[in-house]
Design a protein that fits this description.
Length: 323
């Protein structure tokens, strides 16, 4: 959450603040949600409560099905959210309303008639190999930078290289520790959704970028004072203040260098989509891509089979008796 959003949340009416606190405690204590999942619920909840307050809802007991429908419509119409994101928001609203019914706030559930939109109405955004090269080559020293300036651009390049080489989510980048790098085998250990671990190859370019970052940048971010305070928590990627980098900062890094490279509509998941698509274009097995991405269900990975039709045509011409 940005500082501006945090200020807006603090301006919620006391009844809405009470609902927010109670629901998040319920999710954390009774449902036992992991921090990353809890954070996603909190973001969706804050979006809902802020929108409801703007629509004149001061207490959750005033909520009506029509207001929920208007809120859902605004997510796609005004905010431009994808069907998958809208679907996630609806899931949060349904859980919230069930909890409110259980606590006696409602006699009938106002979210009963909310339908989720079909997911993936459009294919995920994918960069061409040439566009990807432009993005990976974009980080560099600022014009006129002093020689003693900490080269944070080397950190940014290492992040971009690793995300594309290993198909990482933005949330996974910040959780990688120094101990998770297995340089001899070229493998990185990743902690994904549900705290599930997976081992993913890094590739030579990403390893070189990582070595440069650790040697020339990270070592300078860890001063004696910061080392004593254990600010870095053993994490690989750090901020200018020597603390572990967070998901929001990863987004900012990707969008900043994409803009510098002259690329539009590029975000962290675009690198992940490109990673999977380029592997399949090169002939990789879908099950292997599923494992590398950390997908629990193969149907989640199958979206990438629709991206490149030329590979299907080549296989038919090469293998079909009447191709």
């Amino acid at each position: 959450m940005t500082s501006a959003e945090a200020r807006r949340v603090r301006q919620l009416t006391e009844p809405l603040q009470t609902v927010r606190r109670g629901f998040l405690i319920f999710l954390r204590v009774e449902c036992g949600l992991l921090p990353a999942t809890l954070e996603a619920y909190a973001r969706d909840l804050d979006t809902l409560l802020l929108d409801l307050q703007q629509r004149g809802v001061g207490s959750i007991g005033d909520l009506t099905p029509r207001q929920l429908i208007d809120h859902i419509r605004s997510l796609s119409k005004d905010r431009g959210y994808s069907p998958a994101t809208v679907s996630r928001h609806i899931a949060t609203i349904k859980v919230l309303c069930k909890w409110l019914c259980a606590t006696g706030a409602f006699q009938s559930n106002p979210a009963d008639h909310l339908d989720r939109p079909a997911k993936w109405k459009r294919l995920p955004g994918v960069m061409t190999p040439g566009e990807m090269r432009r993005l990976l080559n974009a980080p560099g020293p600022a014009p006129g930078a002093k020689p003693d300036t900490i080269p944070l651009w080397k950190r940014d390049r290492a992040i971009l290289e690793l995300m594309y080489a290993s198909g990482l989510r933005a949330s996974e980048v910040g959780r990688i520790g120094l101990a998770d790098l297995m340089e001899k085998t070229g493998i990185v250990r990743v902690l994904g959704k549900g705290d599930k671990q997976r081992l993913v190859p890094m590739g030579a370019p990403a390893m070189r970028a990582m070595d440069e970052y650790v040697r020339d940048c990270r070592s300078r971010l860890i001063t004696a004072e910061r080392a004593a305070e254990r600010r870095d928590m053993g994490r690989l990627f750090l901020t200018r203040s020597g603390r572990p980098i967070e998901r929001v900062r990863v987004w900012q890094i990707v969008t900043r260098w994409a803009k510098a490279a002259g690329l539009k509509d590029v975000h962290p998941h675009t690198l992940r989509h490109s990673f999977a698509t380029h592997l399949l274009m090169g002939g990789a097995d879908l099950r292997i891509v599923q494992t590398l991405l950390g997908h629990a269900d193969i149907t989640t990975t199958q979206i990438y089979t629709h991206v490149d039709r030329s590979q299907l045509n080549r296989v038919i011409k090469a293998l079909h008796p009447r191709g």
